[in-house]
Amino acid sequence: MKALLILLAVVTLLAALFLGGCAVSGIHAYVTMPANAVMYRELYRDIALMSSFGLAGAVAILIANGFVLPGLFRNSTPRRRLVARVLGACDVVLAGAALAWLVWADRGWAAWPWTWLAKAGAVALALKGVLIWRLVGRSATAATDTRAG
Amino acid sequence: MNVHAWFDIAAATAAAAMTVGCYFWRLKDAAARIDQAGFGYAIALVAGAVLGGYAAGTTNLRLAGEPGVARSIVGALAGAIVAIELFKRARGITGSTGIIFVPAFCTSVAIGRWGCFYSGLTDHTHGAPTAFPWGHDFGDHVPRHPVQLYESAAMAAFLVVALVMLARRDAFFLRNGFYLMVLWYAAQRFCWEFLKPYAPVLGPLNLFHLVCLGLMGYAVWMLAEGRAARERQD
């Protein structure tokens, strides 16, 4: 199961790095907009704004997965495992907050199926956090068992 | 964020779901090798893919005289392979560790290429003009080869084959599935590159042709090496 978490962290990191690059080029296009493109200024600005949100998301994913990943391996240090467990707990708290906000949003502006997809994502995030907490906590024991075997 | 980014998110999500599914279904043991390889494996994989992806994509763009930064999936694949092979050599790890990434890679290309298709001319992934009836107008009223969809279909087909092989627990595929996927991806991409209006760097070949040739050589070499190693064992 820990190998699966490693794989998912790697896939997520790659996605965030390539999406982050996409967002940076969106912002770069606005910053270096040619002077004769004034009529497209609003379009460039909207793309840059959306890209900024995308970049913020990519950075958050990079931090969360980039710091969890070292703690997941069999030969990880106690400090790396602690960081991974703390970030696993953060996942659960974040997922709880997102779920609460989505339930509130359901009463107002939100429309099916987007909030349900987002809720499924939040549940998956919480599950990932719980798994990290449980599996990383077992790392030291697992490593000892392996050596003994 | 544009349509490409949404398809990228869909591709990454589907690739992650496919990884989870295949892990529980057939590839639990294969994935354990990643854990044994250690943190350096993950670092090499991510760094190699990102460096290769951006370097190949941006170089191809600059060769066409276009400014900006671009990414390329074939560059990412080549970069990741170089980094992982160097890491494995340094750590004395033998045998393939890539089979677990096969379903995810095929899924991400099969879905992600639709994002390139819908992004139109600005994505620089469109094909050359064609008179074929399925030529697609990307916005400039010129029917062009929808090469993105050719690539998507090719990788979807390989994904089906890979899932059938996994269902049969085919020993040859479990050992060499990654190399077969690299060979297939590079071969089909090599063909589609002739239908793209990219700048040639060596005769009629563009930068991605050369990368694909390198990948095909790598895959054939690794398949032959694996076979020779098994014969020595026997």
Written description of the protein model:
The complex is a heterodimer of chains A (149) and B (234). Chain A is an all-alpha fold and 149 residues long. Chain A is 84% helix and 0% strand. Chain A contains five helices and no strands. The model of chain A is unreliable at 141-149 (pLDDT under 50). With 234 residues, chain B is mainly alpha-helical. Helix content of chain B is 72%, strand content 4%. Chain B contains seven helices and four strands; from the N terminus they run ααααββααββα. Chain B has helices at 3-37, 39-63, 73-91, 102-119, 147-167, 171-193, 207-233, and strands at 136-137, 143-144, 200-202, 205-206. In chain B, the strands form two sheets. In chain B, strands 1-2 form a two-stranded antiparallel ribbon. In chain B, strands 3-4 form a two-stranded antiparallel sheet. The N and C termini of chain B lie far apart (55 Å). Chains A and B meet through helix 1 and helix 2 of A and helix 1 and helix 2 of B.
Cα separation of the termini of chain A: 20 Å
Summarize the amount of helix of chain B as a percent range.
over 70%
Q: What proportion of the residues of chain A form beta strands (DSSP E)?
A: under 5%
> Approximately what portion of the residues of chain B adopt beta-strand conformation?
under 5%
Please report the number of helical segments of chain A.
5
Runs of chain A in which pLDDT lies below 50 for 5 or more consecutive residues are 141-149
The number of helical elements of chain B comes to 7
Could you state the order of secondary-structure elements of chain B as H and E? HHHHEEHHEEH
Walk across the major sheet of chain B and give the strand order: 1-2
pLDDT < 50 runs, ≥5 residues of chain B: none
| Average pLDDT for all residues of chain A | 82
Order of helices and strands of chain A: HHHHH
Shape call of chain B: globular
Largest interface by Cβ-Cβ < 8 Å: A-B, 36 and 33 residues
